[in-house]
Structures are given as structure tokens and as C-alpha cells.
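Now for a concrete sample entry.
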Amino acid sequence: MDRGVPPPPRAAARGRVIRVDDVDDAVLHHGVIAPDAREALFSYAVLGSTDAALPPPARMPGLEPETRYRVEVLDLGAAPRVLQDAPPPWLADGVVLRGAMLADGVLPMPLLAPGNAVILHARAV
């Protein structure tokens, strides 16, 4: 039965699991990268209260360093609750960056309320 929901990204079906160490124990950050590294899903979840005024930029290791990726928030329905006046501008329309930059952690994240998460979808362009 088709409900108008697009199929899940290829990375969700099979791929390499990546655990990203974060400096904040209240943040759980991990992902799945497709076998050909052309697509990935990363979850950035805030589990509890954090002392950070702003979260550190998200890292997306494991992508091809020279490949350009379009990164967008995967729309799963309700938007996450943020604790700042305005989230980073890229959240609205996505951004294109090289894999090396994503691995280094240049992607600013919103300050999420505890119990909220965003799913980032990266695909090669």
C-alpha cells in the first residue's frame, strides 16, 4: 500500500555503522553509510540536559573525502524542539560539502531540547 512515503535511503537498508564520539555524554551521534559511500544517514540525538551554550559541530566520518555531499534533515514529521532563537540556516534548505569537511566537523547543529533528535541524510551530488 503506497501512502506517498518515499522509500528509505539506501544506507538504511545495509551499510557500515559509525559511532561518533561526542564531548557531551548527553548526545548520542551515530550513522550508517551505504556500502558505496554515496549515501549516509546520521542521527544526532540529545538524551538529557547539557551544559553547552551551543553544541559542537556535527562530524560525519566515513564518507569519501573528495566527494561532495548534499546534507539535509530527513523529514520524519514533527520538527525537533530547539532551544535557540534561530537554528543554523543550513537546516532549512540543506548544504553541500565535501566528505573531508563533514568528517572534520564543520556542520553547526541546533541546540536541541532533551529528548529531541535530527536525522541527517547525506547523498553524493
Summary: The radius of gyration is 14 Å. The CA atoms of residues 16 and 33 lie 5 Å apart.
